[in-house]
Amino acid sequence: MTGGCRCVLAVVVFLCLCLLAPTEAVGGAKSRPKPQKRPPKKPVVDPTDSTPPAQNIDIQQMTGKWYLLNTASMCPYLIKHGTKVEPTVMTLTGPSDQTLSVSTKTRHNHQCWEILQQYHLTSTPGKLTLKGARPEQNTDIVVGETDYTSYAVLFYQKPGKITVKLYSRSVDDLSEPILTKFEQFAEKHGMGLAYLFPFPTYSHCGDVDQDHKINCVPTC
C-alpha cells in the first residue's frame, strides 16, 4: 500500500430524456407542434445543506477515541470488498488553531496503518472540512447526532456523494434504537441494507511505527 488512498466514492447519475413525437391532424396533415412550456428548473440541492449538523454541537466533547461500527456508502471499493473490512478506530485531538487532529488506525494486508488528517473547523458548529488538493475535492464532515459518551453519527459529504458512519466510544454493541436510527439516516440518503457495512469490533491496532503513518484524504 502506498501513501495514496485506494477508496474512491462514486455515485452513478442517470439522465432520462423524454422525446415527444409530432402530432398529426385528421387527413394526414401534420399540425404545428404546440409550444411546450419549459418546466421550471429544480433548485440544485447541496447534500451538505440537506444534512444539517445536530444543534449545539460541542467539538471539544467529541475528542477522544471512537470505534467505527458501521458504514453506509455506495463506495465501489466497499461494495466489492465490504466483507473484508478491518477493525478501525479514530482518535480526535484538539481543537487547536481552528483544526481538529484526526488519527485513524486500520489494517491492510495484516499490517497496521495510521492515517493522519486535519479537520478544519467552520463557522457552523458541528460542521468541519477535510481539505483536498483542490477546493472541489474538499470533504465536509457533519456531526449528525451524538451523545458524546456512547455514539456518534458522522456524514462525509461532497456534492452528490455521501457516506454515513456510526462510531462508538467502546466495542460493546449499541442499543437497538441507536442502530435503527443509523439505518434511518442511511435510508434517508437512499442507502438500504445492501449498502451497510458492519466493521469488526475486535483486534484493533495499537501503536503504529513511523514507516506506516501516512497523510491521506480518503473519500469513503
From TrEMBL:
Q: Which UniProt keywords apply?
A: Signal
Basic residues bias locations = 31-41
- What are the residue boundaries of the Lipocalin/cytosolic fatty-acid binding domain, all occurrences included? 63-193
Gene3D superfamilies found in the cross-reference section? 2.40.128.20
Region Disordered: list its residue ranges: 27-56
Checking Pfam families in the record gives: Lipocalin (PF00061)
Q: Which domain of life is it from?
A: Eukaryota
Q: Which InterPro entries match?
A: C8G, Calycin, Lipocln_cytosolic_FA-bd_dom
So which residues are the signal peptide here? Answer: 1-25
Q: Which positions, given as ranges, span the membrane?
A: none
Q: What is this protein called?
A: Lipocalin/cytosolic fatty-acid binding domain-containing protein
Q: Which species is this UniProt entry from?
A: Ataeniobius toweri
